[in-house]
Design a protein that fits this description.
Blueprint (H helix, E strand, L loop, with lengths): L2 E6 L4 H11 L7 E7 L3 E7 L15 E7 L14 E2 L5 E9 L2 H10 L11 H14 L2 H9 L4 E9 L5 E6 L4 E4 L4 E4 L11 E4 L4 E5 L4 E5 L2 E3 L4 E2 L15 H7 L1 H11 L7 H5 L3 E5 L1 H18 L3 E5 H6 L7 E5 L6 H12 L3 E6 L5 H5 L2 E4 L12 H17 L5 H15 L4 H8 L3 E6 L3 H16 L2 E6 L17 E4 L6 H13 L4 E6 L5 H4 L2 E5 L4 H22 L18
Parallel strand pairs: 16-17, 16-18, 18-19, 19-20, 21-22, 21-23, 23-24, 24-25
Antiparallel strand pairs: 1-4, 1-10, 2-3, 2-4, 5-6, 6-7, 7-8, 8-12, 9-10, 9-11, 11-15, 12-13, 13-14
Helix pairs in contact: 2-3, 3-4, 6-12, 6-13, 8-12, 8-15, 13-18, 14-18, 15-18
The structure holds fructose -6-phosphate (F6R).
Length: 580
């Protein structure tokens, strides 16, 4: 869940790494640090975000490693920030992941005289390397031997005085190498590297790589292996704000294109046969991706009569439901630990697995039998927006494939409706939301997960307590919370449940709570009934799912801006959650 960057080449390493870390801050932003290699190790590390640091980083050297942290072991402070050093300050290491057996390792190392400075799990690794390096004076084999003692997950980078290489190792946490011209990069993902090269090598679990100025050698333990060089077609411009106030707003605006690109990239005729033939579907996912799974369940069951169940990745592993056939893991990052574990579990139980992800080379795509890649482009804001809509593009394509192309035309034009709602004036709704401490979101059918997602976006970036409910459920308890201070956002679209939604809205109004309704343009009844009406283009329900989602994202965004929140880096969160 932290971000790491390493560089070896001809440029000054520290400024390049610092810029790279800024691009990885979505992975964690409670402290940061850099170490460079010269005749000795030079190091700087600080609590807080890079943007908040007003000093200058004056480290020399053309080889270095850096880290931006999302704390797991030990509070965010200068000492717990990475890189970590061995006792003699000769070896520096950055780590993303969790060392599960660090308590016993620390005990043994302390007994052997090592002095620990931090509370982190990571520090044991650098002391283990120190012991080996004292014996062997060869950094690659010292790191290799040290890794044999570790249980847990890691992506780590190591430099040491007396060695002119940078060592990178991966097990369970993402790590990609950027291949330049007599210069090499290592990073948690390609975003910091895109400016320098489009050539990438994705390390596999168990890989250990030795990077020098002229070559990269990769090993599985001590056995040399070769990994393909892949071309990444994300442009460096895509990871810049491009004039928008926040990445989230930019990414919201990129949604029509992301939906359309993804739709076009999924070739229905080449969907794996097991996806097209399975008599039932299980989906595993977390957070917003879980909501995408729920929307799919409603659409698939209603359109094709194929039963679907959706599980949280975190529950699936420990409380395995009776599964057979097809298990789909939805994860934009491809690195969410709970979803990956669920996919592995599904394989153990002989299910065929499909990953839906936005990241080429991600762990999910390595675990699953087949992968469908979305074409959302890099998503930097912690709150998922365009990746969510792109997930829906993939899932709606599957529904379409399983219903013999019934929705093809509708999907092909959906991006136009998304475009239409982007410029909607939501200022009245924002005024109503920003002054409140608590909000409810309600919907029925596929609009119920839309309500869940709207509430998640709102709480995530505005810090207003927001709950999504199936509209019929509010009267079974939550009604007790209704008051003029708890606005309810109701998604009330034409169709079978319209009448009963209107009744629900009346019940809510009768309890004094204001209602803001998202409805269809031209609705004759709702505008007079509610306190705020947001008209969406009159179109197919699949498309109204998309437009209502986008409007709720914008509502959350505008409310959070009005409250002065840190939109792209909400407190306590990180974009990819690689711990269970
Ligand atoms: C919310 C959000 C998270 C993610 C969740 C799963 O805006 O982004 O809820 O959806 O952490 O992430 P992925 O899709 O990467 O598995």
């Amino acid at each position: 869940m932290c971000g790491i960057v390493g560089y070896i080449g001809r440029r000054q390493a520290a400024p390049l790494i610092l810029e790279g870390l800024k691009k990885l801050e979505y992975r964690g932003y409670d402290s940061f640090g850099i170490a460079t290699l010269g005749s000795c190790i030079e190091i700087e590390k600080h609590k807080g975000r890079i943007s908040e640091y007003d000093g200058r980083i004056l480290l020399g050297g053309t080889t270095g490693i850096g880290h931006t942290r999302w704390a797991t072991h030990g509070i965010p402070n200068d000492v717990n920030a990475h890189p970590h050093l061995d006792c003699s300050d000769r070896i520096a290491l950055v780590h993303n992941g969790i060392i599960e057996n660090f308590v016993e390792l620390k005990k043994a190392l302390t007994a052997r005289g090592h002095i620990f400075r931090s509370e982190t799990d990571t520090e044991v690794v650098v002391h283990l390397i120190e012991e080996e390096y004292a014996k062997k004076a060869d950094l690659l084999s010292s790191v290799r031997s040290a890794l044999h003692h570790l249980k847990g997950s890691y992506a780590l980078l190591v430099i040491a005085t007396g060695s002119d290489c940078l060592i990178a190792a991966r097990n369970g946490s993402p790590l990609v190498l950027g291949i330049g011209d007599n210069e090499y990069f290592a990073a948690s993902d390609m975003t910091p590297v895109l400016e320098y090269t489009e050539r990438a090598v994705f390390l596999e679990d168990g890989d250990i790589a030795c990077l020098t100025r002229t070559a990269v050698d990769i090993y599985q333990d001590a056995v040399p292996v070769s990994r393909p060089v892949e071309l990444i077609d994300w442009s460096p411009e895509e990871v810049k704000k491009g004039g928008f106030a926040h990445y989230m707003l930019k990414e919201i605006y990129e949604q029509p294109q992301a939906f359309f690109n993804t739709l076009r990239a999924i070739n229905k005729s080449s969907l794996p046969a097991f996806v097209c033939q399975s008599p039932s579907v299980t989906l595993v996912a977390c957070g917003s991706s879980y909501h995408a799974g729920l929307i799919f369940k409603y659409l698939l069951e209603e359109s094709c009569g194929i039963p679907a169940r959706v599980d949280f990745g975190s529950e699936f592993r420990y409380f395995l439901p009776p599964v057979d056939g097809l298990v789909i893991g939805i994860t934009q990052s491809g690195e969410t630990a709970d979803t990956l574990t669920a996919l592995r579990e599904a394989r153990i139980h002989n299910c065929r697995t499909l990953a839906i992800t936005n990241v080429l080379g991600s762990s999910a795509s390595r675990i699953a039998d087949a992968t469908l890649f979305m074409r959302a482009g890099p998503e930097i804001s912690v709150a998922a927006t365009k990746s969510f809509v792109a997930q829906l593009a993939v899932l709606m394509q599957i529904v379409d494939a399983r219903s013999e192309g019934r929705f093809e035309d509708i999907l092909l034009h959906a991006h136009q409706a998304i475009e239409e709602v982007l410029l909607m004036d939501l200022s009245d709704a924002v005024m109503q939301c920003k002054g409140t401490k608590s909000l409810f979101y309600i919907g029925r059918g596929p609009f119920y997960p839309v309500a869940l997602e709207g509430a998640l976006k709102m709480k995530e970036i505005s810090y207003i307590h927001a709950e999504g409910y199936a509209a019929g459920e509010l009267k079974h308890g939550p009604f007790a919370l209704l008051s003029p201070e708890t606005p309810v956002i109701a998604i009330c679209m034409p169709g079978e449940t319209y009448g009963v939604m209107v009744s629900n809205i009346k019940e809510i109004k009768a309890r004094g709570a204001p209602v803001i309704a998202l409805g269809s343009e031209g609705d004759q009844e709702l505008p007079d009934l509610v306190d705020g009406f947001i008209p969406l283009p009159k179109t197919h329900p699949f498309v109204q799912v998309l437009t209502s989602l986008v409007v709720l994202q914008i509502l959350a965004y505008r409310t959070a801006v009005a409250l002065g929140r840190d939109i792209d880096k909400p407190r306590n969160l990180a974009k990819s959650v690689t711990v269970e």
